[in-house]
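To whoever is on call:

I kicked off a structure prediction for a single chain this morning and the downstream step that reads the tokens threw a length-mismatch warning. I double-checked the sequence; it's 251 residues and nothing unusual in it as far as I can see. Pasting both halves so you can look.
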Amino acid sequence: MGEAYGYRIRTRRAKPPQKPPDIESMSVLLKFIPHEAKKCDCLEKALSKVPGVTHLVVGATEARMNYRGDWDDLCQIEYAAWRIRAKASLVEPAQCVIDFSIGRSAETKRLVEALSRVPGVLNAFIDDGQAVVIGPVAELDARKLPDVFAGAGFRYLALRSHRLRTLSYAAWDADSQIEALKGAIGGVPGVLRVDVDEAAKTISVLMMPRSARDLDLASAAAEAAFTVFPGRAKEEEGADGKSAGSSTPPE
């Protein structure tokens, strides 16, 4: 079993032929950073080979399709993009893969139940010792997941499927607008979601792994008349001390 961006590639399992799929039909959106300015046909070819994918339409930075299959096979869409070295992430729905450690008396069933109750979560399960939480990026706030793990008696270690960065910000003048800051940061290639805490003066950015850098975020913020710099919350690190999402994608 290989690894991609810091978490294991889940292989397709043999399943009873009579078992109906978990998902009969679902609209799926994949965002990606193109290799070059012109359209890359290799991504369309790769996605078209994923079992259960139909009605595929690939644009300049997004691929829309329908999917029929099981929840734990949805990851094959991202893996198809990664295999051709494309930086890509599902956003409708997204897949958050999390490293965690188990407490003395905690049961994973309790954790799955707690994660399933989080607003925006469509499905949650444990696979190969990692928690998988599925839900649309626009509705699922990854910042709230550590508290859910703690409440269920588990230790949250790292978000492996994405890069979650929290930075402090400062406006240049009274005319600087928060919505302009969110829009500027959200337009950086690789950025999937932007949340602003005006009380704490922090901005949290959910990104594709190995995509946007802090310098890219700072440059975008400057265009909106803001300065961003490391805040109180440091970028997540795993137990091995490496930043989440720092592993090399699959060959």
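Update from on-call: the warning came from a stale cache, not from the record. Cleared it. Sanity check on the structure: Confidence is low (pLDDT under 50) at residues 236-251.
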